[in-house]
Specification:
The protein has 242 residues and is of the alpha+beta class. Helix content is 29%, strand content 33%. It folds into 2 domains: 64 residues, Winged helix-like DNA-binding domain superfamily/Winged helix DNA-binding domain (Arc Repressor Mutant, subunit A); 161 residues, Chorismate lyase (3-Layer(aba) Sandwich), CATH 3.40.1410. The strands form 3 sheets. Strands 4-5-6-9-8-7 form a 6-stranded antiparallel β-sheet. A two-stranded antiparallel ribbon has the order 1-2. The protein starts with 8 loop residues before the first helix and ends in a 5-residue tail after the last strand.
Length: 242
């Protein structure tokens, strides 16, 4: 089962377990097979299996119940907050395949409803912005709306990318705007009519909204982004230290 790969054995098993979970392979009682069964299946030691499972428990994908076994979390789509990555990068890193649909790829003008975006980017309201909206789907279910706002000179460069597939941070780096840090806020609210239509849900529906200002190393604001996550499908984990 295990192939020669740049990943360690337990990382390969972890990646494969995620793929099997998302494909609904472990459907009986929403429970993972025993460590012994997985050890025989993957032909590795139980210590290696336990290492992979412990990682998935820490990430919120699995839940251990004392005396009962290991179960698939009811909140499968769990991501750590700290690393500065885009949604597609996050999914790729944990081995989850998602579909990305480009919804809008246009130049927009300032109005009373979107004026706050021009203020955040510190751009004159007489200038246009490049707006790109994408819908992320997991096994056919919409789970995330990405709204990305670029200054005009950056947006022009992005017209050459295939944004139904390409990673935004990588694209910014290729055109000379490598993002080095970001300021992010998180809030919950009710979805708008347009958001409910894209997420295929009905009113009232709560969403988790991530607003992120992305800066280059010379403090230039290269991108303002909003991620509207399906409220019933996501939880985020934040590790705190002192």
């Amino acid at each position: 089962m295990i192939k020669k790969d740049n990943l360690t054995v337990h990382q390969q098993i972890k990646k494969d377990l995620i793929l099997r979970i998302n494909s609904k392979e472990f459907i009986e009682f929403n429970k993972l097979p025993s460590e012994r069964s997985l050890s025989e299946f993957y032909k590795v030691s139980r210590v290696t299996i336990r290492h992979a499972i412990d990682d998935l428990v820490k990430e919120g994908v699995l839940e251990k119940k004392q005396g009962s076994g290991t179960y698939i979390s009811t909140k499968l789509n769990t991501m750590p907050i700290i690393p500065l990555k885009g949604a597609l990068e996050e999914f790729n890193e944990i081995g989850v395949e998602v579909e990305c649909k480009l919804i809008k790829n246009i130049y927009i003008n300032c109005n009373s409803e979107n004026k706050y975006i021009w203020d955040k980017l510190n751009i004159s309201q007489t200038c246009q912005l490049f707006f790109m909206e994408r819908l992320i789907l997991l096994t056919g279910k919409p789970i995330l709306i990405e709204k990305n706002y670029f200054p005009l000179e950056i947006g022009i460069e992005f017209e050459n990318f295939n944004m139904s597939r390409d990673i935004i941070y990588k694209g910014l780096s290729l055109i000379g705007y490598s993002v080095s840090y970001a300021h992010q806020s998180i809030c919950s609210r009710l979805a708008t009519k347009e958001e409910m239509k894209l997420l295929n849900v009905q009113y009232p529906y709560a969403v988790l909204v991530f607003c992120r200002e992305n800066y280059t190393s010379n403090d230039q604001l290269a991108l303002y982004a909003e991620g509207i996550y399906s409220g019933e499908d996501y939880k985020y984990i934040l590790a705190l230290k002192r």
